[in-house]
Amino acid sequence: MNEEMVKSASFTDEVVRLARSGTSGAQLAQQLDDYHEKDIAAALEQLDQQHRMLVYHALGAERLSEVFAYLNDAGKYLRELPVKSAASILQEMDADDAVDALETVPPETRKALLEQMDSEAKADVRLICSYDEDEIGSQMTTNFILIDRQLTVKQAMRALIAQAEENDNISILFVTAENGFFCGAVGLRELLTAEKHSEIKPLIQQSFPYVYSTEKTEDCIERLKSYSESSIPVLDSGNHILGVITLESLLEAVDDEMG
């Protein structure tokens, strides 16, 4: 086994040592910048509460939202924090990850956390929770980019940049018509290589696959698997896009269907 492979295997241990080193605040945050959120999450499971608190305070809500998405029992760690701090982490998470995290806390804690979340994050969580577990809408995320088909390439890039501050699922941009109906998708690669003053209409793949939010997961999962797309839109009965099914969510849905 070469040196690089040995080093890779010890990343979690390195995070544990850093957390126990006595370093805190901005210095600890800077040191943890070099580590993947999955390794930090694994380290949290090995640390005691005192050292976890040092990590929480060093990283802040935005980075912790990425870390907590990797925790199997996020509720255990959310309960260590003040309600307001825990809610700040949840509202920074993708809505589907926030829903998963909220399912690991008692109902009274869940209610308190939702009350502290901002209105947009709360609405996204409630949207996903409004679907039964066997409906594909319960598997979607609201992390996607939406643009209007009337835009030029330059305008679409501006819209992408503005939305990317909140949504990092940018490999495919979903397109709506004047009436708000879903009308197709544009790949990021195609957008980047197009002439900036041209319209995006010729770039739109109008036959892009989609599912309806109330479809049963077992009924549409094979159809979704047949496409090699990173995201597939989820529509309401009026053909408006509500969210997307990502490849990660699809794999989770497959696992669930297989028991």
Secondary-structure topology with pairs:
Layout: H1 3-9, H2 11-20, H3 25-32, H4 37-44, H5 49-68, H6 74-78, H7 83-92, H8 95-102, H9 107-116, H10 119-129, E1 145-148, H11 153-164, E2 172-176, E3 182-187, H12 188-193, E4 211-212, H13 217-225, E5 231-235, E6 241-246, H14 247-257
Parallel strand pairs: 1-2, 4-5
Antiparallel strand pairs: 2-3, 5-6
Q: What order do the SSEs take from the amino end to the carboxyl end, as H and E?
A: HHHHHHHHHHEHEEHEHEEH
Are there runs of 5+ residues with pLDDT below 50, and where? Answer: none
| Share of β-strand residues | 5-15%
Largest sheet: 3 strands, mixed
Outline, from the CA principal axes? globular
User: Any idea what the radius of gyration is?
Assistant: 20 Å
Adjacency order of strands in the biggest sheet: 1-2-3
Q: What is the rounded distance between the termini?
A: 36 Å
User: Structural class, judged by helices and strands?
Assistant: mainly alpha
Number of helices: 14
Mean pLDDT: 91
Secondary structure tally: strands = 6
**Fraction of residues in helix:** 40-55%
